[in-house]
Design brief:
Length: 98
């Protein structure tokens, strides 16, 4: 399966091991596109998501938004509070680094 589709598939597979899903979330940071962002948002907005996977998805999402120049407020409002804090922290850090 070509990347990032393979990574998205692992990330969204709740039967996959947590470590595999966490790795997929972190690796998705290297990609762009609506399908990548949507997969990360799906995980970062889930109230039943594993904390480790949620945090990695949020960090990757923040890196993608910082790199691609996005800050969609409605997207951020849909995230779990912990995920939103991580995304906002990554975005703030990227602004300081500019």
């Amino acid at each position: 399966m070509p990347q990032p589709a393979g990574l998205i598939s692992v990330l969204l597979d709740r039967t996959a091991r947590i470590g595999e899903r966490d790795d997929a979330a972190m690796d998705l940071e290297a990609y762009a596109g609506e399908h990548v962002v949507q997969a990360l948002v799906e995980v970062a907005s889930s109230p039943v998501e594993d904390d480790l996977v949620l945090a990695s998805a949020a960090e990757s999402l923040g890196q993608i938004l910082a790199r691609d120049g996005g800050f969609p407020e409605d997207l951020l409002e849909s995230l779990q509070p912990a995920a939103r804090r991580i995304v906002e922290e990554v975005l703030r850090a990227s602004r300081r680094g500019m």
